[in-house]
Structure formats: C-alpha cells, structure tokens
Amino acid sequence: MKGDRELKKLYAHRKFLVTLDKVADDGERFETEYGPFACCKGERILVDNAGKGNKFAVNERYFNENYIEVGEVKEDKTYDYESMGNAYAAMADLNQDEDSDYIKGTKDIHSIE
User: Fold this and answer.
1) What residue segments make up the domains of the chain, in order of their start?
2) Which residues in the chain belong to E strands, given as ranges?
3) What dihedral do alpha carbons 74, 47, 57, 44 form, nearest 10°?
4) N or C: which end of the chain has fewer CB within 10 A?
5) What digits encode the pLDDT tens for the residues 16-71?
C-alpha cells in the first residue's frame, strides 16, 4: 500500500478485533477475499484478527462510531505448580471425607431397617 501508515494498533468492534490502515491516496487498491477493492483517501482499511486476515474498508465516521482502541492482552504463562498441587490434594481429602460420610450414612440407614 502507498503512503504513510499509522502504527498497528488493535481496535475492537462488538464482535471482533481489527488492525487499522489509513488510505493515503484516492484509488488505492487492496486485495479482499472477493478480489481487488479501490478506496478513497481517508477511508480506513481494517484487517480482521480472527485468523483469516480478511480486509475491508469503512469510512472515518463509521469507524469512529463503532470501533474503540484496545490494548493487547498478553497471557501470563507462569504457573504456581506448588499451590496447584496443594489445591488438588485438598480436593482429594474433601472427596475422601464425603465418601466416608456417605458410606457411614448408608450403613446407618440400613442398620435401622
């Protein structure tokens, strides 16, 4: 694409995330899944971040009314394995207590009959 571009920032619509390119010159073309598309100066070319990278154009007013800039979320890949292990051990103890109570209660019911 021609002209200067803004930095790639994420923008959100109600249902999806996009990155933004701003059209610098009239007649600028870009490829869509349906073929080439010509734009006017000032329009926004949006690239869908859902994996396919589909491109589509919107005018500035529509963009400003329906999109908002968002920050990128980075997942924290660190896990506290010790606390996870302790939590699983506590759950196992609870299950054993519940099983013991159930078995004892069942024996008590049958001994009454």
Assistant:
1) 10-70, 79-113
2) 10-12, 17-22, 28-32, 35-39, 44-48, 55-58, 68-70
3) 50
4) C
5) 778 877 887 888 888 777 788 888 888 888 888 765 777 888 888 888 888 888 87
d(CA 31, CA 45): 11
Handedness of CA 6, 44, 16, 32 (dihedral sign): negative
Say if CB 2 and CB 26 are below 8 A apart.
no
Counting DSSP H helices and E strands in the chain, the numbers are 2, 7
What's the pTM? 0.48
Q: Is the pLDDT score of 92 beyond 60?
A: yes
- Nearest alpha carbon to residue 40 among 55, 60, 10: 60
DSSP 42: T
